[in-house]
Amino acid sequence: MNEQFGHIIHEITPLSDKDCFYIADRRKSEFTYPLHSHNEYEINYIENAEGVRRIVGDSVEIIGKYDLTLIAGEDLAHVWEQHDCTSKNIREITIQFSKDLFFGNFINKNQFNSIRKMLQKAQKGINFPMETIMKVYPMLDTLSAEKSGFYAVIKLLTILYELSLCNNCHTLASSSFVHIEESTDSRRIRKIYEYINQHYSEEIRLDDLANIVGMTPVALSRFFKLRTGKTISDHIIDIRLGNAIRLLVDTSNSIGEICYDSGFNNLSNFNRIFKKRKDCSPKEFRENYRKTKMII
Question: Could you report the per-residue pLDDT of 120-133, keeping only the tens digit for each?
Answer without folding.
Answer: 999 999 999 999 99
